[in-house]
Amino acid sequence: MTAPVFVVDSLEGVGPGSVVDVRGPEGRHAVSVRRLQPGENVVLTDGRGRGAAGVVVSVSGKDHLVVEPFEFPVEPEPRPRITVVQALPKGDRGELAVETMTETGVDAIVPWQAARCITQWKGDRGLKALAKWRATAREAGKQSRRLRFPEVADLAATKQVAALLAAADFAAVLHSDFDHVSEPLATAELPAEGEIVLVVGPEGGVSRDELALFEEAGARACVLGPSVLRTSTAGTAAVALLLGRTGRWS
Asked: Keyword GTP-binding on this protein (predicted)?
């Protein structure tokens, strides 16, 4: 089994001969929950692509771990980069979508307040929901042994999503309306580098006005397959397909 991952604020200046103190919530999880002992291997990361694989030197109290790194892996910037614009699902299915997309390998997630979203992020409730998405991405990144965690952006309005699509090297909207011509995502021509942006609509689907705006911005209407996936699972399936097709899983 691979070594557990813990997040530190920074690995700047950490190199051969260094020791790193891990405290706070991460230290507590390592010492009091995982009950790590001296001699066990761990991986530290800043979540921005830098890592430090090392051995536990000592533990003290309930939340203090000292690690001596011996390897310094780096997870390069992804090529191409994959961003999923995720319409807000009902209940806790948004966190499920964030978790599984992170485990699969998405690079950025943009929450979107679509016209047909039942869930509304307003005021303190919206801030708390966004914080949960970000915490979920962080924990799923650790669980899946990633060194570069996905960015979870602020809540986007439809016009902001259109601007994001217009700037992308490849942009698509997952759309399964039989009255609208959609091409298979599995055969769409993809860039070798740059930015891929994919829009996943809400349970009620992307509205005609939204789809028209997105297509005007350069996005294609694409379909995953013959079955209709829930909004909380469509993004994960699409990311897996794109990672395979772009060679990032090769």
From this structure: no
pLDDT in tens, 177-196: 656 668 999 999 999 999 99
What's 51's domain CATH number?
A: 2.40.240.20
CB-based contact 219:80 (threshold 8 Å): no
To the question of pTM greater than 0.70 for the whole model, the response is yes
pLDDT single digits (tens) 37-70: 999 999 999 999 999 999 999 999 999 999 999 9
Range of the domain at 22: 5-71
Do 242 and 141 lie in one domain? The reply is: yes
DSSP assignment string, 146-207: -SBPPEEPPPB-HHHHHHHHHT-SEEEEE---TTS--EETTTS---SSSEEEEEE--TT---
Closest CA to 141 of 92, 179, 184, 102: 102
Could you tell me if 96 and 165 lie in one domain? yes
* Whole-number Å distance between alpha carbons of 16 and 201: 48
